[in-house]
Design goal:
homodimer; 3-stranded mixed beta sheet; 21 helices; mainly alpha; elongated
Chain lengths: 467, 467
């Protein structure tokens, strides 16, 4: 490493390396390919294997996977997406599977077992010692999105009565098998968590000092059934590297480390973003790995809901046939009002949903949000009205009355949409519904109807056409 | 702490505590309020002060801020949002400001200085020793969103020739002033980064072993001008606690720790989500802290763009006056087609944008994406067509020809929208534009026009009406 390359150059270099490896494998130059692969770190090898699996199929992937040194292959396996892990598991022997599962860190082990089919899991567990089997089963039973499913039991336990010197000796013995050594946990009377102590404070302290003097007893903890979203909020708020997980009796059952939280944040955000666009997908499978029918199933429910809403809007518009058939040009401004209603409402809803999800907005801020959106909508409504009035009258050459109709409807629609966009997510939160469900699909379905009614009512009024 | 409370109970408890404190401050029982406040940790005290500032104003906030022990007040200050920091800075003496800035960790110091008005920064820097002033100025000059703006120069440096025992003694001396002690950096020949070594590997190793034997020379690093989004991708990918930042000559200039990356991820995601909803806000200011006019300014550009697009759609519709005036009922299905186009297109675009931002989709996957969206859109198109045909003919009692018009237009619109939703974000990426800009606003603006034209053309064709 003589000179530092910037990120783009390095990414390009990596892509070229992957191409080379794929070419070598395609030519059946397995040993050369392995040598090229082993120039990379385990995370990158994981990415390379993903490419191999995608481009060359599962057989070649397994050939090269088996050629990796055993410790590397276990580490690489833990970095693969779960559907790739499954493909590999199905292609290797039971003996090889057992070896890999055995060697994985406890939390990776649980992640893998959660995704594997039950018959394979049973086969693996048969060969596991009874004590560990019991522990694995407990961990497998925690609901998928709670703190319990994220934690690992591999942490460093210290005793209050230890000196720093004794504690350091203990860490030296246990350190390699532990998920983290940087936060240690002090227990008393069996498994009750008494306090936590950071390795930093141990390292800078003198050897004779007692652990009890260094430990922090006013530590932050989570409950084993707390939701993972709340857990990730704790990490963001406090900037910790690890948080202890306790049960109802305040016994330490595991710890959660920050590296696993990065995945949770990504997962939770993706779920929010998808829901805001009317997509219901419970899994964290990647877009390209989701089958066509699953994609259809994820997208259809909201599409049907929105179609019904749009049909209703159509029925409302049909009621105004008298107005429309007399002044057919009104039709050409209908999309403008409906579209603007949806767009302005979505903006407000998006900001409020994000604010709620980052805890920047609370339920008690409802009136503040509405007051803000009211003022914003008045200003935006007036600007858009003037703009549209000018377009209708000056550019399109329509009558002032039609211009006024569009302008008046515009102000009402923008104000309604902004207030609705502010209110609906808050209401959802209040009712315990995910505010992300109150984004575009819901907002635009409602504003469409209201926009159509408002516009056509104002039109019949201003143009003096009886309904 | 006798029993573990779940998160909701604890949050409720905290809200009650805040209420009590606000009440005490309102009654001018400052000492009692301080005692209540000091029962909490520094992060929570930060939240309490935010509430005090919001509810009771800046004067009471400063009174209580001054009553906190000095070390607590500095720590609390570093956890406040930057606009709250500014309000406090403007209310306290220069001496107090200097004290706080002096005591802050280097990276927090830079964050605070970046947000303060230039005249205050100048005043502070005047009193700073020359060496540190130079360093601060270098850090302040890094662009806001690059690795350089996230890093801290407070890391542990080791020498290759040190033994583990010597290294541990060095860490013991320097450890308290360093941002992290858990990863240490080995330099040679001045400042060139040679390798990194984790505290874990030092702790478990014997005292006589040389650092050079333990260090990893094939470490992952970032360049000082790499974008923060790419840096956060590295953290997610590798699960590191810290990453070294080097300059062009591969000299170590600082390190970035994972706790700062959590904020970056949040910031970058918020920007994406906002852009996807047509909101342009460059800052990371919270919703409630953004003024009404800034909100208007953030939302207006896309609204105007979309208004122009909707006007164009209106003009297109006006061209089909002949068709519409002959069969006025066609108008009532116009929202259905336009709305469905926007909705289906947005679903596809959202998934592709998210996939691109998580690196799950690459530019080379463009054909795969299009092929997937094509199949999805055919299935969804057929389902929605049948559904709508039934509604138009059976429920509304319209003619079969009108039913066919709606159904045929529906298939075309859904297919077009899904392909556009897949293609536009990929195209943006290719051109170096943020794909998040290709979400709802852009997609629906285009699909609106295409939906209107498709529908009305098919209508004139099937119903035999000359344009």
């Amino acid at each position: 490493m003589t000179e530092a390359m910037d990120m783009d150059t390095r990414m390009q270099q990596f892509d070229e390396d992957v191409e080379t490896i794929l070419q070598l494998l395609d030519d059946k130059s397995y040993f050369k390919a392995r040598d090229e692969i082993l120039k990379h770190n385990e995370v990158d090898i994981g990415e390379i294997l993903e490419e191999v699996l995608e481009e060359l199929g599962v057989e070649k992937t397994i050939i090269i996977f088996r050629m990796l040194p055993k410790d590397v292959s276990v580490e690489v396996f833990s970095h693969l997406p779960s559907d790739d892990q499954l493909e590999i598991v199905q292609g290797i022997t039971d003996r090889e599977i057992s070896y890999i599962i055995d060697e994985l860190d406890f939390d990776d082990k649980i992640d893998v077992l959660e995704e594997l089919p039950a018959n394979i899991v049973d086969k693996i567990l048969e060969k596991t010692p009874k004590e560990e089997r019991k522990l694995i089963n407990t961990f497998l039973n925690y609901p998928d999105t709670c703190a319990g499913s994220l934690m690992t039991p591999d942490y460093i336990s210290l005793q209050e009565s230890m000196t720093v010197g004794e504690a350091m000796a203990h860490i030296k013995r246990e350190g390699m098998d532990s998920e983290t050594v940087y936060t240690c946990y002090v227990k008393k009377g069996g498994r009750k968590l008494e306090g936590i102590v950071s390795l930093r404070s141990l390292v800078v302290a003198d050897d004779e000092i007692k652990v009890s003097e260094l430990m922090n007893t006013d530590y932050v903890y989570v409950n084993v059934y707390d939701d993972q979203e709340e857990v990730s909020e704790m990490f963001k708020k406090y900037g910790f590297l690890a948080i202890p997980v306790v049960d109802k009796e305040h016994r330490l059952v595991g710890i959660i480390t920050v590296d696993d939280i990065l995945d949770v944040i990504e997962e939770e955000t993706t779920e929010d973003i998808e829901r805001m666009a009317g997509i219901m997908d419970g899994s964290d499978t990647e877009y390209l790995d989701i089958g066509v029918f699953r994609h259809v199933k994820n997208r259809l429910p909201w599409l049907v809901f929105m179609t019904v809403a749009l049909m209703l809007t159509g029925t409302i518009i049909a009621r105004f046939e008298a107005v429309l058939s007399q002044v057919i040009v009104l039709v050409s401004y209908l999309p403008l009002l409906m579209g603007t209603g949806g767009n302005t409402g979505t903006q407000a809803a998006t900001l409020v949903i994000r604010g709620l999800s980052l805890d920047e907005i609370d339920l008690k801020d409802t009136l503040k949000v509405l007051w803000k959106e009211l003022r914003i909508s008045v200003i935006l409504g007036i600007i858009l009205s003037l703009f549209n009035f000018a377009k209708v009258v000056l550019v399109d050459g329509q009558s002032v009355m039609i211009g006024l109709t569009v302008a008046a409807a515009m102000i009402v629609v923008v104000m309604f949409a902004k207030l609705l966009g502010g209110l609906l997510p808050m209401g959802a939160k209040k009712l315990g519904i995910d505010p992300a469900l109150m984004a575009t699909p819901m907002i635009s379905s409602i504003t469409d109807m209201v926009s159509a009614v408002t516009y056509l009512l104002i039109a019949s009024l201003l143009l003096g056409i009886a309904l």
